[in-house]
Amino acid sequence: TLAxxxxxxxxxxxxxxxxxxxxxxxxxxxxxxxxxxxxxxxQLADQFAVSRTVxxxxxxxxxxxxxxxxxxxxxxxxxxxxxSSVSRSIT
Length: 91
Known about the structure:
4 helices
């Protein structure tokens, strides 16, 4: 076999972490208000140019932080950000 001269790509963070941070910034900056519905997984995946799996991981992370409410069959809505998220975004 021929060894190709391929360099490893440095990983600073994974895609889901970057998408999570981008959505969290929108929420904390109040571009989306509590009660607003997020676009569908498919729409978010298209907007971020990532797979739906990446979107699911990001939404799961934001749900765990208390920023999103996920209701199967209904959709994902924005919750009021906890004070810890707001203070973390300021720093």
